[in-house]
């Protein structure tokens, strides 16, 4: 059996006060405060393809979600924490003994942290959404350069409070995360980090790195709590404040793929890739200063593939539809390979016809996956996924 969801909404809470992003009502429910929507009765539904599979072959939604958590979410956040820890240590070593070698080491650790974050940032639900952690980890896009100006002002004015990790955590989200640290390490004046001429810049960078590590640690710990968000997601039921049944839990998982594909293609890629070279905006690309633009795209698709494989969501498809799972895997791998082929400055990649073709193909792959997952896969599971996390409707 299955349950058809008429649509997903970004701003309108669904029953039990929950949608693809936690609303104010859902957060109240999470804290144990009842919502009107939770008065409706619900049953726990195993994830089965519209009754096409016999009961003995049913794949339980709770098992799918638990595999996603144990096989992907928890280890991915642990890996991010490890990289953030190494980044913080490297930053402190640079501040203690400025040198080009130590600066190079920090930049290497920064790229490693970007890789780790790009894999797990597809999980835009749960603990990362609390306390503005998502925006504090990465404030992007910064279309009006508001965040950039705040970072530049802190560096120019040598704001002592910004160099204190505890006080930095209370400041603008744009000053606290990977975007801010990228400017410290690669922006105007970054070369002075290799000598003793600018100790404030290094101190501020160390505070930002420490803040990133704290966020990574807090989110990782939250996902490992026995009574936290992970338990709610993996154990849907009538008394659950966020997920009334298995269909709602799996809907959240499928939404991760659909939302992130749209984000990667329409915001990350098309934010700098124009319809022709004259329309390109390379300085609108994420991580363009550190040359990590394509690595971020690689991580996003690799993360989606790892999540899909870990959850074994494809096992819930009927035998006639199992081809979808293999196709999703192949396309995610191919898209990641397209991005992996692009290294170096993104502006130079855009002027190389062969590399530009890789970016065009990357766009086609993500569009194909959006159709495959957002239309074909959801139809197999009896879900209606006519939603967009970006259109604000």
TrEMBL record:
Pfam families: Peptidase_M75 (PF09375). The keyword Signal applies. One of its GO terms (cellular component) is cell envelope. InterPro entries: Imelysin-like (IPR018976), Imelysin-like_IPPA (IPR034984), Imelysin_sf (IPR038352). Its main location: other. Keywords: Signal. Residues 74-361 form the Imelysin-like domain. This is Peptidase M75, Imelysin.
